[in-house]
Amino acid sequence: MESSTSRTIFQDISSRELNGFRVRKRPCFADDSSKFSEIGAFEFVHDNSATPPMALSFCKTNRNAHIVAVTGEDGYVSLYNTRLKLPFSATHESNADKARVSEWLAHDNAIFDVCWIKDDTHLLTACGDHSVKLWDTQEQKCIGALIGHTGSVKSISAHPVNNDIIVSGSRDGSFALWDLRNSKRRRSHFSTSPIDIVRGANSLNLKTRGRHGKGAAISITSVLYLKDEVTIATAGAADSIIKFWDTRNLKASITQTIAQDKTSQKWVRSYGISSLSQDKNGVYISASCMDSSIYLLNVLRLENGPIKSFKGCDISTFFVKSKLSPDAGHILSGSSDGNAYVWQVNNPSAAPIMLEGHDGEVTAVDWCSSEIGKIATSADDSVVRLWNINSSCYSNTRSPSSIRKREFTLPKMKRRKLFDEEASESVNVPELVSLLEPSMEEIRTPEAFNKQSSILNLNSFVNETCEKSPDSTIGSPSSVLNPPPSLKRKTILDYFMSHS
Predict the structure, then answer these.
(1) Which of 85, 403, 408, 463 lies at a CB distance of 3.0 to 4.6 Å from 436, suitable for a disulfide?
(2) Is the pTM of this model over 0.85?
(3) DSSP assignment of 149-212
(4) How far is residue 430's CA from residue 437's CA, in Å, rounded to a whole number?
(5) pLDDT band for position 453 (50/70/90)?
């Protein structure tokens, strides 16, 4: 074994930094699924009748990220609290009654997709009745309807910044752009017509019609509003082509790429795409293809096609979805074989981790945005299962070495005073340091309030020092880091605290 004394100075510094502060680590997978813990399961049931879930989605804000919305074939929307302890000894139905926050009948048809908007206060539902509805989640009240498609709405996505802008894709082969502010008021809700609609967005290739017929071949299966705020990605059931559209001019797609391995010169059967997803930063897009592969694309190099592919699951129907993790580190997918699968993006050749437990085709899946490692899977067995892929990978506790004594440098004027004055004995350095240095009790977790107070005390001391500076007496210009008191300019810390 190599001695620790043989480490270079750079390794030593790196080790001290990592051990000194708690670093949020990405989950590291082992070679077996025993490292994944199921933390709960509940049944999607209404009026004593269980129905298969069609879509699920965690809330987007940190405050509500533990709430998951689940929709099904019966048109119901249910919200569940995933932080509650759901005992394995209890039945799935009793766990559902315990975790359920609210539920309501949103449509008289199957709901294929769901999307949270406006800080989780509103919910969009895409339905087989050709409509998209907007819901107030507090009142469980429909406040808007988007009417314009002539087929089942299969997918919806919101603008990354302005949630009033919505894009939807339909089985009729069109995708539509909506503005919730452009509406006509009715008795109980408003009705909105699309501001633009592109019909026949997915070209029909007769060779790919197959047993699903014309309707399935032209269907738009997934739409995605990219993080650049102007581009929309669409995918369909006919082929593995992903088209990209500029919302400022929707006459024709600006580019397209094939989410399938086309390295061979021979003719390869084209498969449809069941779902698209993107990471939090919008750099990567994942595409679930009906050839039972998931392809990863870089939006900056779309002309190169997929940069990675992941195999091991069974995507036999368009109901099987996949999701790229918010940090683009992992891909989660359902499967027709009754299992869910997780891949590491940096190691696509490795076998995926298999999550067992469902008794039917695993369809909708999702990652929790703020509770790192929490995922949800749903299947045709009408059960939603919650998993934690972090618990066994690294410890959430803070090591004693991470609580270190913080050293503060003296302000510029104090340092100048130390060197300029001849009577150095008049300056008591320990007293100055004691004024700047907070006690360990004030900065240790979890006394966050005391920590904040100590920082505010430090700012007060620095401000008093600035008021005694030569700038305040002679009225000379000052830098941003040491402003004159007359300007009443706040520090950067005060700015962020006032907006928090």
Answers:
(1) 408
(2) no
(3) -SS-EEEEEE-SS-TTEEEEEETTS-EEEEETTS-EE-SSSEEE--SEEETT-S---GGG-GGG
(4) 10
(5) low
Dihedral sign of CA atoms 473, 475, 478, 483 in order: positive
Q: How many beta carbons lie within 10 A of that of residue 284, not counting itself?
A: 19
Structure-derived torsion over alpha carbons of residues 451, 453, 454, 455, reported in degrees to the nearest 10: 90
The position carrying tokens 């006459």 is 251
pLDDT digits (tens, 9 = 90+) for 194-223: 999 999 887 655 444 444 444 556 899 999
Alpha-carbon torsion (482, 488, 492, 493), positive or negative: positive
| Alpha-carbon separation of residue 463 from 72, 414, 478, 483 (angstroms) | 59, 13, 14, 10
What class, spelled out in words, does domain 29-388 have in CATH? mainly beta
Which amino acid, one-letter code, is at 345? Answer: V
pLDDT confidence bin for 37, thresholds 50/70/90: confident
| Cβ within 8 Å of residue 257, ≥6 positions away | 241, 242, 244, 297, 302, 303, 305
Alpha-carbon dihedral angle through residues 305, 307, 313, 314, given to the nearest 10 degrees: 10
- Neighbouring residues of 295: CB distance < 8 A, sequence distance ≥ 6: 259, 260, 261, 286, 287, 289, 306, 308, 309, 310
Query: What is the CB neighbour count within 10 angstroms for residue 375?
Result: 24
Query: Is the Cβ–Cβ distance between 261 and 309 less than 8 Å?
Result: yes
- Both tokens assigned to 323: 């999701």
How far is 153 from 220, CA to CA, in rounded Å?
9
Determine the length of the chain.
500
**Residue intervals in the chain for CATH 2.130.10.10:** 29-388
Strands annotated E in 100-152? 100-105, 111-117, 122-127, 131-136, 141-147
- pLDDT at 458 (0 to 100): 56
Rounded to an integer, what distance in angstroms lies between the CA atom of residue 270 and that of residue 210?
A: 11
Backbone angles phi, psi at 441, to 5 degrees: -65, -25
Closest C-alpha among 349, 310, 351 to residue 333: 310
Given a cut of 50, is residue 48 above it in pLDDT? yes
Q: C-alpha angle 57/59/60, rounded to 5°?
A: 115
pLDDT over threshold 90, residue 500: no
Q: b/e string for 59-86 if b means 16 or more Cβ within 10 A?
A: bbeeebbbbbbbbbbbbbbbbbebeeeb
CA dist list (Å): 130 to 147, 148, 170, 232, 440: 7, 8, 8, 21, 62
